[in-house]
């Protein structure tokens, strides 16, 4: 048994891995950082091993990761491939996508009934939408359907679940009544994801039906109060109360999803005033997810679960939410150029801060970007968030405009190892097409606006829902009740110490957001740690030590014994 001081242990554990010193103005620096983050993300992926049952192909291990998160991650990696030219993951992505098309090529998987709600299905669908818009190579071997066929099949499978039996409409979270933990919940992310999908399909295909659905979903969501007058997006409402009660918590990805969809509609309608107002309102309110402390200006954070003692309560799903706000902010800025200056400022500062958090073992990233170092956590969500906030800068710098159907692009995205039946453009999608930017389109520059106040939080009723639907064979499908989620926390003892970095205080900052954590999280994931370690008073940073036997305090110094 050896005794080591905390200071020595800190040097031993983290000094060997330097932080990512990102230059947000350098494409080379951004590409180098994203390559590291992508490698870290894929180190968690085991879904391409030989001999796996079909249920495990193309997804991250469960527990702790749910089906939806793989779909979300693949969308980010599709865009990573096209933005950076790194083709390392093309074959893995092809395999993962095709393996999850489902028997009817609509992303409805009978073997994922316990995990698949409307939002989950829509997240996978949005990733295939990115494959279309960013001209990702078709699978080298014949696939059962094209990307566009799968996306449209998915859309056509979801929209019949629009539920007018309560609240005057809206999508429930869950598809199947057996998933009763979310059957009576009409939530932001299910409606927002289908809204964004409708808008993107309208732009890609030019079909009016998609425009109509986007407008219908927006009108209902705004009218029922999921989107407030101040453009705060709450998590969802309980349809048993006719949507008068629900969960008022705000999460980054809900804001980002609606912001992205509104910006696409602004583009599709050639700068219509109503969609400009909606995009602007959501953009302004997004400022509430930045600048948690005075010395962390413009740094993104998940206000509902990341700050202070609640920081250990972010569940596995919630650890990835910042990834989607980052992605959708950059996409919104391309579709609505008046947002570009504000978005670039936020994402640049956040990407630099994220790089400083990537000093874990092997350069793994933590979750709390505002502390100036690694917070002792690692996982798929942490890697997604660091990757997305950084590669979003490439989207902005290259001004990558998603393509429309039938367009030929002067670029060459990386192809798969075998010839692809896709048209191969010569580079990334074209750098044209967003509405012209004029002096009256620019929002005022300056500090991030103070977010309007939102309603006080309430306990989550469960978390999102979605209305029952016929299965692929035309009959209502039944589903086994899901097992209780289980946590996959590492079996380590964690020592929380104060780092001598002049970091912000541990008190919760004043914010326009409700920062309490709902009793039931807004997704299916379990808490990352049911019994998170308490932080010492005044601690602003944390470092995780493994293989620790016991801890004692001697003369104000913390000493621990390592086996």
What does this protein structure show overall?
One of its GO terms (molecular function) is mannan endo-1,6-alpha-mannosidase activity. It catalyses: Random hydrolysis of (1->6)-alpha-D-mannosidic linkages in unbranched (1->6)-mannans. It comes from Sporormia fimetaria CBS 119925. Belongs to the glycosyl hydrolase 76 family. The protein has 563 residues and is mainly alpha-helical. The chain has a domain of 228 residues. The chain contains 13 helices and six strands. The strands form two sheets. The chain has a three-stranded antiparallel sheet. A three-stranded antiparallel sheet has the order 2-3-4. Helix 7 packs antiparallel against helix 8. It is globular and about 55 Å long.
Features:
563 residues; mainly alpha; three-stranded antiparallel beta sheet; 35% helix; 6% strand; globular; disordered N terminus
């Amino acid at each position: 048994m050896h005794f080591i001081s905390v200071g020595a242990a800190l040097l031993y554990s983290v000094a060997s891995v330097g932080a990512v010193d990102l230059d947000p103005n350098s494409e080379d620096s951004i590409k180098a950082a994203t390559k590291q983050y992508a490698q870290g993300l894929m180190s968690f992926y085991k879904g391409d091993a030989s001999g796996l049952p079909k249920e495990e192909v193309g997804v991250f291990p469960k527990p702790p990761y749910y089906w939806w998160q793989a779909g979300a991650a693949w969308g980010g990696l599709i865009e990573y491939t096209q933005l950076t030219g790194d083709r390392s993951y093309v074959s893995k992505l092809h395999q993962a996508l095709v393996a999850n098309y489902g028997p009817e090529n609509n992303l409805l998987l009978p073997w994922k009934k316990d995990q698949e709600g409307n939002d989950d299905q829509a997240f996978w669908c949005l990733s295939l939408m990115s494959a279309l818009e960013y001209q990702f190579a078709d699978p080298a071997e014949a696939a059962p359907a094209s990307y566009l066929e799968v996306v449209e099949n998915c859309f056509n499978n979801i929209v019949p679940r629009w539920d007018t039996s309560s609240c005057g409409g809206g999508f429930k979270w869950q598809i199947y009544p057996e998933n009763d933990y979310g059957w009576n919940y009409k939530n932001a992310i299910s409606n927002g994801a289908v809204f964004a999908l409708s808008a993107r399909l309208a732009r890609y295909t030019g079909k009016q039906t998609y425009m109509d659905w986007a407008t219908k979903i927006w009108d209902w969501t705004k009218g029922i109060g999921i989107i407030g007058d101040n453009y705060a997006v709450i998590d969802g409402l309980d349809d048993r109360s006719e949507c008068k009660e629900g969960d008022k918590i705000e999460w980054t990805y809900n804001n980002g999803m609606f912001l992205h969809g509104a910006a696409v509609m602004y583009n599709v309608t050639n700068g219509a005033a109503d969609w400009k107002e909606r995009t602007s309102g959501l953009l302004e309110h997004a400022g509430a997810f930045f600048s948690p402390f005075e010395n962390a200006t413009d740094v993104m954070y998940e206000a509902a679960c990341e700050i202070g003692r609640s920081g250990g309560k972010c569940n596995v799903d919630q650890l990835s939410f910042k990834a989607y706000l980052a992605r959708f902010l950059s996409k919104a800025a391309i579709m609505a150029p008046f947002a570009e200056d504000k978005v670039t400022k936020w994402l640049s500062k956040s990407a630099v801060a994220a790089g400083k958090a990537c000093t874990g073992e092997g350069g793994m990233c933590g979750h709390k970007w505002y502390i100036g170092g690694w917070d002792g956590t690692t996982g798929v969500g942490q890697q997604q968030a660091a990757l997305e906030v950084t590669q979003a800068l490439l989207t902005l710098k290259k001004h990558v405009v998603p393509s429309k159907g039938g367009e030929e692009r002067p670029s060459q995205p990386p192809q798969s190892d075998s010839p692809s039946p896709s048209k191969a453009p010569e580079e990334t999608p074209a750098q044209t097409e967003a509405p012209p930017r004029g002096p009256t389109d620019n929002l005022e520059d300056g500090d991030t606006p103070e977010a309007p106040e939102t309603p006080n939080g309430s306990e989550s009723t469960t978390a999102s829902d979605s209305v029952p639907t016929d299965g692929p064979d035309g009959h209502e499908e039944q589903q086994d009740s899901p097992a209780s989620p289980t946590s996959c926390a590492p079996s380590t003892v964690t020592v929380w110490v104060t780092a001598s970095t002049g970091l912000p205080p541990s008190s919760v900052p004043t914010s326009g957001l409700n920062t309490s954590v709902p009793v039931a999280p807004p997704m299916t994931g379990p808490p990352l740690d049911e019994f998170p370690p308490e932080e010492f008073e005044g601690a602003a940073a944390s470092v995780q030590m493994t293989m620790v036997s016991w801890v004692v305090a001697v003369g104000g110094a913390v000493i621990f014994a390592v086996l």
